[in-house]
Structures are given as structure tokens and as C-alpha cells.
């Protein structure tokens, strides 16, 4: 039978080889909170240059289980570990080359619960690696609660990185760290002037707008924006739906997502909902941001004040590079 009363938090450390996962796990184990646990179970999915300190492992009552294949990480395996070790905390040091999406869908024992996913990125190699392994970074960003870029310097594109992550994962917290004492973690910047009316958002800055609305939604409530995109009118069952926005792609075609708002306005009255009609043009409209009691976005609506049809660009997709 499952031991429902003994809840076990699971921490998952995500990142490519040499991104600093082992060092962070050891920092966790060295803290009083983890050092006092009865049993810290570490499931290690890869071996890097950094090795676990035996003294820290002993003091923190930690046990390491090495796995060589993602196929080992299934419910029966976790259930076996639960029964054998009765862990109080589970830490999984993930292999960044394995498919994270499949693993995140794998069930765990009922008394284990996903507490925190921490993504670790080596900023010094990020720009090079992302050209060939962009899908791996996208998975890390999508499933992390916290993303830490370490080994940063003045060339680290903090603003671009933060915006791209926020579109993929609106709840992720992003931090930049460096051993350089002169390094400064930048405050988020915007490529448009938020104090103007309307806020004029260029074609290339649409992604930045969507990311910042997720970052600080209350700032955009009742703001008027002007930007290019599709007005769309279609049927959802028997109900007419009207929206404004563009499609965005984080990595590949499988990652395509709609980036936009529910919408209203006179421009939709002339559209054929049964044909799922969409028209490209420039919209000027007032945003209404609705939050739930927890302060999270429930809906963002745009009241279209003016719409001017125009020629559609060859490529209207929002890319996050």
C-alpha cells in the first residue's frame, strides 16, 4: 500500500552536462534543512567532472542511485526505491540529452510530489550550444520553476533570454550569476515606450510584448497598444469566438502556439465566423487584464478601437531565438 501520510518532495535538477547541477545538489545537501533529513535519495542520470563529496553525502544521510538510461525511470523503479529506502527527499540530477517531456509524464509513487524543478545553464556555452541543441534548452525552460544562468559575463544577453523564457513558461523565475564581482544582473528592459499612448509595438517586438504582459500584467491593464497581427473570427461549437494575435514558435513546428488576446470590436461584425476568417492588419486597441485571486492572469482582452487592413508579410510567425 502507498504511504500517503509520508509526503516526499521531489527536486529535479535540469541542464546539460557541466551546467553545474552536481554543485547545486551538494549546496542543497550542505544546508541545515537537507542535512537533517533522515534520507536524501539522489537519482543521478549522468556523471560529469564534478563528483559528489563523500563527507557531505554521509553528513546529509544521502544515498546515490546511478541510472544509465531514461528507460529505467518508470513507476515500478520509483516504487522499488520508495519501499527500499523510505526517502524523506528525492533529488533527480537529470541527463540533459534525454527526452524530458516523456519523463515528466511518467507517474511517481502517490506520496512523492514534484516540489521544484531547477534549470541550470552555463551562459558561457549557451549561445554556441543552442544553435545545435535548441530543443533541449526549450524543454529545460518549459519545465523549470527556476532557471539559473551561471558563469555569466557582459556578453550574456539577459534581456533576450528572459523574454524568451517567459513566453515558454510564464511562471519561471530567471536569475543570472557570475564569479565576476563587477557583473550586474540587469532589470528587464522593453524595446518600446510603455509610457506612450498608444504603446507602439513594432512587428519584431511583438514577442517582447507578450512576455512582458506575463511578467507584469497589472501594468498593461487599460493600456492602449498599436501593433500588427491577425483579427480572427471562428466557431467553437455553436459559439462565435473573436481573437487577435499571431502564432509563435519557440523551437520547431511542434512548438507553435497562439500568442494573443480575446477580442471585441466593430471590425469583427463584417467577418464570417463559419469560414474561420482571419485578416492581417494594424490594430489599435485597449487591453483589459483580468487576474484571479492569486494574482495570476485569467484573461487578457483587447477592445479593438481601430483596424486597418494591410498586406501580410511573407512570414508572420514570432520567433524566439
* Terminal-residue CA separation: 48 Å
* Elements, N to C (H/E): EHHEHEHEHEHHEHEEHHEEEEEE
Low-confidence stretches: none
Report helical residue fraction: 25-40%
Query: What structural class results from the helix and strand content?
Result: alpha/beta
Task: Describe the strand arrangement of the main beta sheet, using strand numbers.
Answer: 3-2-4-1-5-6-7
Count up the helices: 10
Classify the beta-strand content into a percent band: 25-35%
Q: Biggest sheet, open or closed, and with what strands and sense?
A: 7 strands, parallel
Rg from Cα: 23 Å
Shape: elongated
Average residue pLDDT:
90
- E-strand count: 14
List keywords for this structure.
321 residues, alpha/beta, 7-stranded parallel sheet
Characterise the protein shown here.
This protein is of the alpha/beta class and 321 residues long. It is built from ten helices and 14 strands. The strands form two sheets. It has a seven-stranded parallel beta sheet, sandwiched between helices. It has a five-stranded mixed beta barrel with strand order 9-10-11-13-12. The chain is elongated and about 70 Å long. The termini are far apart. The mean pLDDT is 90.
Summarize the structure.
The chain is α/β, with parallel strands linked by helices and 321 residues long. The chain has 10 helices and 14 strands.
Amino acid at each position: 500500500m502507498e504511504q500517503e501520510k509520508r509526503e516526499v518532495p521531489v527536486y529535479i535538477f535540469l541542464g546539460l552536462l557541466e551546467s553545474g547541477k552536481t554543485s547545486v545538489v551538494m549546496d542543497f545537501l550542505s544546508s541545515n534543512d537537507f542535512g537533517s533529513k533522515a534520507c536524501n535519495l539522489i537519482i543521478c542520470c549522468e556523471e560529469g567532472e564534478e563528483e559528489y563529496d563523500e563527507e557531505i553525502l554521509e553528513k546529509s544521510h544521502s544515498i546515490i542511485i546511478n541510472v544509465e538510461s531514461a528507460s529505467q525511470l518508470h513507476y515500478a523503479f520509483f516504487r522499488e526505491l520508495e519501499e527500499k529506502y523510505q526517502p524523506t527527499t528525492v533529488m533527480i540530477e537529470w541527463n540533459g540529452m534525454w527526452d524530458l517531456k516523456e519523463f515528466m509524464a511518467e507517474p511517481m509513487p502517490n506520496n512523492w510530489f514534484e516540489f521544484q524543478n531547477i534549470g541550470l545553464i552555463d551562459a558561457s556555452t549557451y549561445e554556441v550550444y543552442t544553435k545545435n541543441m535548441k530543443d533541449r534548452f526549450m524543454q529545460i525552460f518549459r519545465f523549470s520553476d527556476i532557471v539559473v544562468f551561471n558563469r555569466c559575463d557582459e556578453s550574456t544577453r539577459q534581456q533576450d533570454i528572459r523574454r524568451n523564457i517567459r513566453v515558454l513558461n510564464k511562471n519561471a523565475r530567471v536569475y543570472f550569476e557570475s564569479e565576476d564581482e563587477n557583473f550586474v544582473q540587469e532589470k528587464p528592459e522593453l524595446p518600446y515606450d510603455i509610457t506612450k499612448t498608444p504603446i507602439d509595438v513594432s512587428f519584431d517586438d511583438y514577442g517582447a510584448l507578450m512576455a512582458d504582459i506575463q511578467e507584469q500584467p497589472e501594468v498593461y491593464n487599460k493600456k492602449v497598444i498599436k501593433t500588427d497581427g491577425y483579427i480572427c473570427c471562428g466557431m467553437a461549437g455553436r459559439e462565435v469566438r473573436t481573437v487577435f494575435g499571431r502564432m509563435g514558435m519557440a523551437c520547431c513546428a511542434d512548438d507553435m502556439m497562439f500568442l494573443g488576446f480575446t477580442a471585441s470590436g466593430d471590425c469583427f461584425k463584417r467577418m464570417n465566423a463559419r469560414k474561420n476568417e482571419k485578416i492581417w492588419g494594424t490594430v489599435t486597441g485597449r487591453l483589459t487584464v483580468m487576474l484571479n485571486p492569486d494574482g495570476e492572469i485569467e484573461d487578457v482582452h483587447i477592445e479593438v478601437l481601430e483596424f486597418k487592413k494591410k498586406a501580410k508579410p511573407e512570414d508572420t510567425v514570432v520567433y524566439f531565438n
